[in-house]
Design brief:
Keywords: Cell adhesion, Cell membrane, Disulfide bond, Glycoprotein, Lipoprotein, Membrane, Signal. It is found in: Cell membrane. The chain is mainly β and 194 residues long. It is built from 1 helix and 14 strands; from the N terminus they run ββββββββββββββα. It is elongated.
Length: 194
């Protein structure tokens, strides 16, 4: 607060964060300047409130077969606004309308792994992560797209043919694997001699 007149012995400090411990000192001043600060007050914690800040950097990907890995930067303790803080992880296959939700109860946890045999390799999912505490649910992060785990390609290239170019060179050509059959980001092909 601004400087308080010398006949006032209380002050209200505003715009503090919920569920944070604060301690205070008071300094007396006159027209010459400020004196020594008082000893600190006892620590006082503000009341709890619903969380207002969702986690940042929501992303994911990678993992093992039949997994969807979702990651985020945990919310710092001073922004959790109360006890019982955790995350609500929501995801759905892209193009669908129903969210699948789960709760992560540890405030320090930076990821969730959903395992299910029905997950197709390298499939896009819409993902968002929300927050909650004992006072209620807070906001969700913005929706982002995360791909499920990649797997090895499920089919071989087709239409393989070879043409002699000279006494020491042969050109080999093939038809590319369709994107859906590559089960991930296709990095390249390996040509081997028989």
């Amino acid at each position: 607060p601004d400087v308080i007149d010398g006949k006032t012995f209380t002050s209200t400090v505003v715009d503090l964060n919920p569920w944070v411990e604060y301690e205070f000192r008071v300094v007396a001043s006159n027209k010459i300047g400020g004196g020594e600060p008082s000893l600190p007050s006892e620590k006082v914690r503000t009341e709890e409130a619903v969380p207002e800040i969702p986690p940042s950097e929501v992303s994911g990907g990678g993992g093992s077969r039949s997994e969807l890995v979702i990651t985020w930067d945990p919310v710092p303790e001073e922004l959790q606004n109360g006890e019982g803080f955790g995350y609500v992880v929501a995801f759905r296959p892209s193009g669908t309308t129903t969210w699948i939700q789960t709760v992560v109860t540890s405030p320090d946890t930076p990821k969730y792994v959903f395992r299910n045999e029905s997950i197709l390799p390298f499939s896009p999912y819409e993902v968002k992560v929300g927050v909650y505490n004992n006072k209620g649910e807070g906001p969700f992060s913005a929706v982002t797209t995360v791909f499920s785990a990649e797997e090895e390609p499920s089919t071989a290239p087709s239409g393989v043919s070879a043409t002699s170019l000279s006494s020491s060179a042969i050109e080999v050509s093939w038809t590319a694997i369709p994107w859906k059959m590559s089960n991930g980001r296709l990095l390249g092909y390996e040509v081997s001699l028989l």
